[in-house]
């Protein structure tokens, strides 16, 4: 009789324990979902706050001038129009400027990926005298602002008769200390035995880079490509100094030509700005995961 009572008590206790566990799990799941919902709402609010100037610029680009210059606060155009975009394209050769920027940014991006990856390979896998000193000198160039060398660079390219050409916009930016550092930190996460094994099997350095390193460093290449393209697309001071004709101007220089003393040109200028920021924003949105992954992938070994 006592054993039956003890078994019944155990069953009751086990049922209560299961119910108690279910209640705890439900509460934990509810808290998790509630916190996730709150964080999502906060993120949406912050994103809307940060994107408000961009969204308002897009709204102005589609807004007629008579709606912009009123005492009313018009955030959204009542009669959207593409006339501002057509006027911007008619006033300046914006298509030519966009093509120039794509050519310059594309070649600079490819050049930096190739040169920085090769230099980083040398600093990571090859053993030669003065390697550490040379790497420190390369890193030291990051502390020199570009404005400090712009005059000497201008005199150099002027003596070479490169002014107002593609090479003057591309060649000075075919490598960067930041890119070498990024690739080197990523290569440092690979064991040196990987390179030694490839050499024993008769693999050359270039084949090792092409067949082994490049497939393993896609995230670093993606990060470098996004970062370099956006920087090259937004260059202003150097193209302003070395270009003098509409044939070679880039978008950042050409967009200033839309500015006018006529106040009615503001909506047209904003329309031009919206057109030239679309490529850089698109590249960032497409490659943001690669950018974040590449920036942090080489930070931890293993």
From TrEMBL:
Cellular location(s): Cell membrane
Keywords tagged on the record: Cell membrane, Membrane, Transmembrane, Transmembrane helix, Transport
Main subcellular location of this protein, as a coarse class: membrane
Superkingdom classification of source: Bacteria
GO annotation (BP), single: transmembrane transport
One Pfam family hit: BPD_transp_1
Database matches in PANTHER family: ABC TRANSPORTER PERMEASE PROTEIN MG189-RELATED-RELATED, SN-GLYCEROL-3-PHOSPHATE TRANSPORT SYSTEM PERMEASE PROTEIN UGPE
Protein name according to UniProt: ABC transporter permease
Species per Swiss-Prot/TrEMBL record: Lacrimispora algidixylanolytica
């Amino acid at each position: 009789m006592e054993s039956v009572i003890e078994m019944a008590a155990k069953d009751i206790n086990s049922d209560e324990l299961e119910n108690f566990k279910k209640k705890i799990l439900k509460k934990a799941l509810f808290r998790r979902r509630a916190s996730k919902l709150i964080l999502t709402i906060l993120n949406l609010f912050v994103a809307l706050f940060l994107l408000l100037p961009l969204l308002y610029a897009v709204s102005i680009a589609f807004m007629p001038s008579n709606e912009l210059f009123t005492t009313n606060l018009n955030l959204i155009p009542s009669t959207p129009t593409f006339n501002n975009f057509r006027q911007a394209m008619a006033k300046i050769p914006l298509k030519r400027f966009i093509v120039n920027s794509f050519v310059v940014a594309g070649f600079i991006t490819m050049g930096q990926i190739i040169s920085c990856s090769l230099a980083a390979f040398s600093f990571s896998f090859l053993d030669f005298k003065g390697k550490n000193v040379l790497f420190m000198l390369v890193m030291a160039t990051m502390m020199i602002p570009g404005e400090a060398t712009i005059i000497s660079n201008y005199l150099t390219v002027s003596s070479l008769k490169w002014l107002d050409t593609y090479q003057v916009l591309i060649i000075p930016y075919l490598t960067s200390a930041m890119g070498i550092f990024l690739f080197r930190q990523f290569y440092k996460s690979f064991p040196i035995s990987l390179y030694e094994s490839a050499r024993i099997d008769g693999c050359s350095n270039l084949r090792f880079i092409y067949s082994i390193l490049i497939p393993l460093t896609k995230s670093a290449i993606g990060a470098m490509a996004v970062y370099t393209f956006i920087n090259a697309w937004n260059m202003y001071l150097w193209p302003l100094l070395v270009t003098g004709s509409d044939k070679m101007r880039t978008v950042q220089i050409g967009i200033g030509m839309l500015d006018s003393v006529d106040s009615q040109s503001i909506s047209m200028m904003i329309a031009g700005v919206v057109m030239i920021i679309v490529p850089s924003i698109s590249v960032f949105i497409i490659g943001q995961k690669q950018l974040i992954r590449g920036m942090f992938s080489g930070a931890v070994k293993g």
